[in-house]
């Protein structure tokens, strides 16, 4: 019975370690993907949360099935011990069977009395032999150590990943477990245009310059243009990086337009309008000359 309890504790420990590793690993993978790609679509968030839930349900079912399969009786324990202790082979299980189903003596049966004496002798001999066995040596430490080391490694990796940026980690976990809540990612970049006019003469050139108020430029920036009268067609131009800013030049502008800058996951900038006006023309000129007095 003591060996059976130890075996049950080992199974419970391995099942617990598997559950912890599965929960942390799946949460870490989904969290890193959310931090990297910053999905704001409700469908994408629900898909991630459902996948995370299905993985946890599958892991819980595996652990539950493992515990259900653990139906070791004392006889099964004895049979397993015989496999690892050759000196008790074919005797330990027999002795346990005799103890669980003792021979019933009949008042007039001499043969049953002899059988009972033989059974008692087998039980006593087996018990004396079993007392000399080092029970601790029968356990294979490798599966338990592997589970313990794996769980410690996953705990450390998850702790390091979370402590490297606790705010992002907490937000990623909340987004994963509560997909119905509105939890947008904060904007990392604050793009802004530099010295942009509100009016432009027809045919003039314009240089678009974008900087980041946070001081950290994104890896790329696009200029989105929408000409006057166009509601669906949006031109997207990749801007050129020049030190701490991005720029793009447009020549010979003849139509009013709207514009905005988009960088990586930052699409929050509103549309801005530039009006194109016809430049003033000189139609006539008059000059008056006055001769000097001399």
Describe the structure concisely.
By secondary structure, the protein is α+β, with helices and mostly antiparallel strands. 48% of the residues lie in helices and 17% in strands. The protein has helices at residues 2-37, 42-69, 74-84, 92-100, 110-131, 141-164, 166-177; strands at residues 191-193, 199-201, 204-212, 222-227, 235-238, 240-242, 245-253, 257-262, 272-277.
Describe the protein.
This protein is of the alpha+beta class and 294 residues long. Helices cover 48% and strands 17% of the residues. The strands form 2 sheets. It has a 5-stranded mixed beta sheet, with no helix packed on it. The radius of gyration is 40 Å and the shape is rod-shaped. It starts with a helix and ends in a 17-residue tail after the last strand.
Uncertain runs are 103-111
Which sheet architecture does the biggest sheet show?
A: 5 strands, mixed
Q: Helix coverage percent of residues?
A: 40-55%
Total beta strand runs: 9
Instruction: Give the strand order of the largest sheet, numbering strands 1, 2, ... along the chain.
Output: 2-9-8-4-5
Order of helices and strands: HHHHHHHEEEEEEEEE
Q: Treating each run of at least 4 consecutive H or I residues as one helix, how many helices? A: 7
The radius of gyration computed from the alpha-carbon positions, rounded to a whole number of angstroms, is 40 Å
Q: What structural category arises from helix and sheet content?
A: alpha+beta
DSSP strand content: 15-25%
Q: Sum up the overall morphology in one term.
A: rod-shaped
Mean pLDDT: 78
Spatial separation of the terminal alpha carbons: 137 Å
């Amino acid at each position: 019975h003591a060996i059976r309890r130890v075996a049950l504790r080992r199974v419970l420990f391995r099942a617990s370690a598997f559950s912890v590793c599965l929960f942390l690993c799946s949460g870490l993978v989904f969290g890193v993907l959310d931090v990297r790609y910053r999905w704001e679509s409700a469908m994408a968030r629900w898909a991630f949360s459902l996948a995370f839930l299905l993985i946890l349900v599958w892991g819980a079912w595996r652990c539950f099935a493992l515990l259900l399969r653990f139906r070791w009786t004392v006889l099964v324990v004895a049979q397993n011990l015989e496999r690892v202790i050759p000196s008790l082979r074919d005797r330990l299980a027999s002795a346990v069977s005799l103890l669980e189903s003792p021979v019933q003596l009949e008042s007039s049966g001499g043969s049953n009395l002899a059988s009972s004496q033989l059974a008692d002798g087998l039980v006593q001999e087996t018990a004396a032999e079993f007392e000399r066995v080092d029970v601790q040596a029968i356990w294979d430490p490798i599966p338990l150590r592997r589970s313990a080391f794996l769980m410690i490694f996953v705990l450390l990796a998850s702790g390091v990943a979370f402590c490297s940026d606790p705010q992002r980690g907490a937000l990623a976990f909340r987004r994963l477990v509560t997909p119905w809540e509105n939890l947008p990612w904060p904007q990392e970049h604050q793009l802004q245009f530099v010295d942009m006019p509100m009016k432009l003469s027809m045919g003039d050139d314009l240089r678009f310059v974008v900087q980041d108020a946070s001081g950290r430029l994104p890896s790329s920036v696009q200029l989105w243009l929408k000409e006057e009268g166009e509601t669906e067609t949006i031109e997207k131009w990749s801007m050129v990086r020049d030190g701490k800013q991005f720029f793009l030049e447009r020549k010979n502008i003849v139509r009013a337009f709207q514009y905005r800058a988009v960088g990586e996951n930052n699409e929050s900038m509103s549309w801005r309008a530039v009006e194109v006006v016809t430049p003033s023309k000189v139609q006539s000129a008059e000059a008056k000359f006055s001769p000097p007095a001399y």
